Amino acid sequence: MRTAGVCALMVLWAMAHLGSPADGSRSLRRTTGGRKGSLGLTGHDANGVPLRRSKRGWMWNQFFLMEEYTGTDMQYVGKLHSDSDRGDGSVKYVLTGEGAGTLFKIDENSGDIHATKRLDREEKAFYILHAKAVNRQTNEALEGESEFIIKIHDINDNEPRFTRDPYIAHVPEMSDIGTSVIQVTAIDADDATYGNSAKVVYSILQGQPYFSVDPETGLIKTALSGMDREVKEKYLVVIQAKDMAGQMGGLSGTATVSITLADVNDNPPRFTKTLYEFRVPESRELGSSVGAIRAMDADIGQNAEMDYRIIGSDGPGMFDIISNRSTQEGVIVLRKPLDFEKKRQYSLRVQVENVHINPRSYKMGPFRDEASVRITVEDVDEPPAFERPSYVMEVREDADRNVIIGTVSASDPDDKRSLVRYTIDRRTDMDRLFDIHAGNGSVYVLRDLDREENAWHNISVIASEFDNPRLISRVPVYIRVLDVNDNAPTFATNYEAFVCENAKANQRIQTVSATDPDEPIGGHRFIFSLAPEAAGKANFSVRDNKDNTAWILTRRSSYSSLQRSVYHVPVVISDGELPALSSTNTLTIRVCTCDREGNMKLCNPEALTAKAGLSTGALVAILLCVMILLMIVVLFAALRRQRKKEPLIISKEDVRDNVVSYNDEGGGEEDTQAFDIGTLRNPEAIEDSKQRRDIVPETFYPQVRRPVLPPSRDNNGDVRVFITQKLQDNDSDPTAPPYDSLATYAYEGNGSVAESLSSLESVTTEGDQDYNYLSEWGPRFKKLADMYGGDDSDS
């Protein structure tokens, strides 16, 4: 059917476009100036020859070609012909431009144009080409180049395609009919300007009767009112897009639209029960949870958010309710302490209400609900309760011991009324100044008090039940020590006074004041006077200024430091309290040489020493102590330098117990002070025979002596000869180790990988080991063979 349609279209195309030139479409002929065109003078060239413009015979401007050609032969496009072509083969037709030579070919002799390949309009809708006629021999253009277009005729070969698949949409539940949901769009790649191949019509295949679609715009709307999300939340709608304006034979495509009903607050919250009951112990802490209630709401999200509140209670302020946004629960919390003995049950009225209410849903009724809550208080064995949160007591600092200064009181709040025992937390009374009567809570003094040392004492009293001592409670007790006049006043500081040798009588030389650690209620009132025993022969006088200060005045003039360099003036200070307390304070006055203005210039050494407060004997004692310390340090350093050298072998009785240890470590090549290398280079300087210090010399073994080799000029040779000689001496010496020593190494023993290499612990008794083989080892082991070899009787 499709091939027949293409052939019919080609016939129509030939009838429409290959007619006479008079139809205005195109002419495949070319006329020159004397035939169908008129020549007009347009000017002259450089040589004066008139220029002529010929009217071309190219009358066409476009060809038409059907897309998706399925024939076996190449598709014929059209024919080009020039008036200059007389059929003798002298004219050659040339085609250039888009697709020339590949998609389109021209017969250079006849001018016939064919399409070589199957074309698709959706890939390229038209092609621009250029044609000209040239002389075959000279290749000169017979006509100017002309441009023409080959347009591709569209056929309905593309189905509509949706821009998305699937579509996701939301629409509020309970929406009215005709509420827009989403618009779908399908695109047809065919030519929209040619026929109905690209005219798309929309229809709904699945989703009725809930939704509808506009056939021209693709807008999906609600078609049913009252759609409830709580009944059905998601809908799957299938939309079809069909071209050819929806006629029979058109191509179609489908898309899926997932529509979700968005929640609106159309459901009020509801309690699942009318009465909620909770039990809570009376010891529950403030702010803790008592219980949680929850109302159910069919909505979701913020539409299901609820607020809880207490609208009635027989215990005002005892409880509060907090809305938990994450769980949508109402948490009841405790705000005041519970007391089983006072009230054992509470009743609450709780209301729940939606936070976000849709105005359209007001007509559906109130979005709130109410319920009752009953809270039962459970009895708990509570510790004793004090009557006050804290106690303040006062006591005079001169109070006698065992004097009661106050009483604390606590009782068992439970019904059983258990007896209470009182104690003092000794961590708050480390000096044990106070104690408490265990039965009645009387606090009394246990030791003497001193207000000047500590004016306040903060102790903690513990009350516990006799029946259950683990239940305790504490209360702070603040004890204030009241002041008693028990301290005499003294000088406020250590005064340093001096008098000039040229001082006049009644001259003030010092102003003194006093201090008293007591704190009288009316403040201090000090009285200054000269001691009676010094009044008769006094050189100075004391004048009380009545303001807690006094002046020290001279009673005569002209003092001499040579006669007396220091004066001691006894000053009596009284506090004026009842009973009055007084003290005698000594003021030291130095005699100094002064200038005319009374400025001190020079004082004698005795006075300076007195000022410093150190006597000559004290200075000598200090110097003596320093010398003794220096002698001890020097003696200790000298003793540490002395080292007692232990013998190489301590015991000579049992050679198996002798361990030779070497505590010195050489410095290698850099150690130039460990030994004299010159000794090795001069073998003649070595002693012929040197006794060993760790054994008794064996006289019955002759010493083997080697002739001394002549020295070599090479120092290295001297050392090599010396070492060789000493090695030979030791090899032939029967008294050399290991006859009397046991060498131990750090990599040998029970803790090493090789374990112990000693045979001393390999057998249980000494008799289990046969040492006769030692006699076969040569003269080196002769001593060991004599000691361990042989029969038991010999050993």
Automatic annotation (TrEMBL):
Cellular localisation: Cell membrane
GO biological process: adherens junction organization; calcium-dependent cell-cell adhesion via plasma membrane cell adhesion molecules; cell migration; cell morphogenesis; cell-cell adhesion mediated by cadherin; cell-cell junction assembly; homophilic cell adhesion via plasma membrane adhesion molecules; morphogenesis of an epithelium
Bilayer-spanning residue ranges: 618-639
One Pfam match: CADH_Y-type_LIR
Key words, A-Z: Calcium, Cell adhesion, Membrane, Repeat, Signal, Transmembrane, Transmembrane helix
PANTHER family named in the record: CADHERIN 6 (PTHR24027:SF428), CADHERIN-23 (PTHR24027)
Function: Cadherins are calcium-dependent cell adhesion proteins.
The protein, known as: Cadherin 6
Gene source species: Oryzias sinensis
